[in-house]
Amino acid sequence: MGKQEILDKLRDSIVNQDINGCAATTKEALAAGISAFDAISEGLSVGMKIIGDKFEAAEIYLPQIMMSAKAMNAAMEILTPLLAEEKPGEGVGTAITFVQEGDIHDIGHRLVSTMLGANGFKIVDLGVDVPNDTIIDEIKKLKGGKILLAGSALMTTSMLGQKDTVIAIEEEGLRDSVKIMFGGAPVSDGWIAEIKADATAENAADAARVALELMK
Ligand code: HCB
Questions:
Q1: Buried-most residue among 37, 43, 59, 105 (CB within 10 A)?
Q2: Are residues 114 and 161 in the same domain?
Q3: Within the chain, where are the H helices?
């Protein structure tokens, strides 16, 4: 089987909620010389995007989403240790990753955290539903080092909270201490400019590229 066929099989294992098949195909991909990075960005993530779109179109429902997320997790358990070997840490800075207050969608957040970690960032993962006070405390602890704030919001409501996060950081006099990247399906370039954050990214691979650029 060629590289593209295996990547398509990975994608389909997510779309078809095939947990065992996803783990087996992940091993097959590695055995065929496909990197962990490519397996995620060109196979698994493509499948998650399709699943998200199908849910929005009411073609699938909650149980299917949860099964796809489990399939993704089964693959990530195999791939995460390998990512660090593929791109060894170069000490580019610390990334504080989190999901905005009121929001528990963590699939994209975890992908982004994994990819940033694989690209040399030390990760401080604050998890989901994170209030601004927690974020401010963490920035204060790390002040003086190279800090990236990487926040996710999947709902239009929680996305509005990103504006408050930037304002809170400004009010604490910390804006020059941190680069701010926000992502998630509703986040656009226009929104990033409006709230005076630094950048956004379409997907986890793009997030790693943008983050490294911001740290230069
Ligand atoms: Co959820 N949900 N959901 N949901 N959900 C969405 C987000 C809607 C858009 C679906 C819809 O109605 N059309 C919608 C939000 C509507 C809106 O505000 N505009 C919605 C809603 C309303 C809700 C509930 C309120 C439903 C309810 O209970 N009535 C509830 C939320 C509860 C809460 O948070 N307080 C809810 C619950 C759920 C679950 C639990 C069933 C499940 C989440 C499971 C989990 O995360 N552990 C879920 C899911 C899976 C979705 C959809 C279907 C997919 C999201 C997803 O995981 N996408 C989503 C519809 C959609 O987005 N198409 C739907 C796949 C990941 C890989 O993509 O965009 O998260 P991503 O991340 C990308 C990208 O954005 C970027 O890189 C990532 C990796 O490629 N990125 C960053 C992400 N973060 C970044 C940060 C950076 O700095 C840079 C880049």
A1: 43
A2: yes
A3: 3-15, 19-31, 36-38, 45-56, 62-86, 107-118, 132-142, 156-171, 189-195, 204-214
4: how many CB neighbours lie within 10 A of its CB?
11
Closest atom, ligand 1, to C-alpha of 157: 18
| Distance between Cα 66 and ligand 1 center (Å) | 12
How many structural domains comprise the chain?
2
Are residues 23 and 109 both part of a single domain? no
* Residue 57 CA, ligand 1 centroid: distance in Å: 14
- The best mutation among 37, 42, 68, 154 to test binding of ligand 1, ranked by most ligand atoms within 8 Å of the C-beta, falls on 154
Per-residue pLDDT tens digits for 54-113? 887 889 888 888 899 899 989 989 998 887 676 655 578 999 999 999 999 998 898 899
**Would you say the pTM of this structure is higher than 0.90?**
no
